[in-house]
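Working notes for the structural subgroup meeting. M.R. asked for a predicted model of this chain before we commit to crystallization trials. I am recording the input and output together here so anyone reviewing the notebook later can reproduce the run.

Input as submitted:
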Amino acid sequence: MSWGVQGVEVHFGKVTALRDVDLALPPGEVRVVVGGDGAGKTTLLQVVAGSLRPQSGEAAKPPAARIGYLPASSGIYPDLTVGENLDFAAAAYGVSGQPARERRRLLLTRAGLDGVERRLGGELSGGMRQKLGVIRAMLHRPELLVLDEPTTGVDPISRRGLWWLIAHAAAEGSAVLVATTYLDEAERAAELLLLDRGRVLASGRADEVVRGMPGRLFAGDGAPAAEDARRAWRRGRRWRLWCPDGDADVGSAWQAASPDLQDAVTVALLQEGLDDGEGGVA
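Returned structure, recorded in token form:
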């Protein structure tokens, strides 16, 4: 069965945290919701996990015992050892016996935590805490695994280890939803959902989002003219210039460029800001 949300809206007083959001979460696949601070990622994950009831729309999810949820923090107890943290989670989910012990050993080994079971959670590095939190969330083979920014602030090696765990959960049949601010992680997923201030700006496979970018993209070495500044941004040592009208004459200083996901997301955010009467991207 596929989980997810349809037409979901969430309001906190006069603030709209989510506006008419649709997201399908089929088993065996990883979906990523990407966006900056205040985009609505955590609110969406809370609705999906069942810890927050939306004002309107529908949320399809398995029973709470079949959901694995990692909050924005690692969710581990710093005054318990690694082993005690997992014992607590196993008891809460009713996981026991030899198969459970073997699964625990496998996940700890693959995550590089097999030698630290007696260390306190508070003594672990940030990357180790995050990996332990993911293991806790997937220990009971949940039907739905929801992870809120599991790799934020984590070193590149630990990020690879975390994504092994995420891919392993999907391979076992879990529907997986990951919130992230990293676009390279969005490219790993089967599909992505781009949120900004609770609104969906783009969705689908990464290549579909890139192909669906409107207008044309140009690259140049010099800063744009003042009248073009709202549609331009710096990327590395060069500038990007987006023209909603693909036939616009931008001059010989600019060369046509092939967009990637970073460009497509920037254009989606830029277009949203221009439609709202705001400035461009610096």
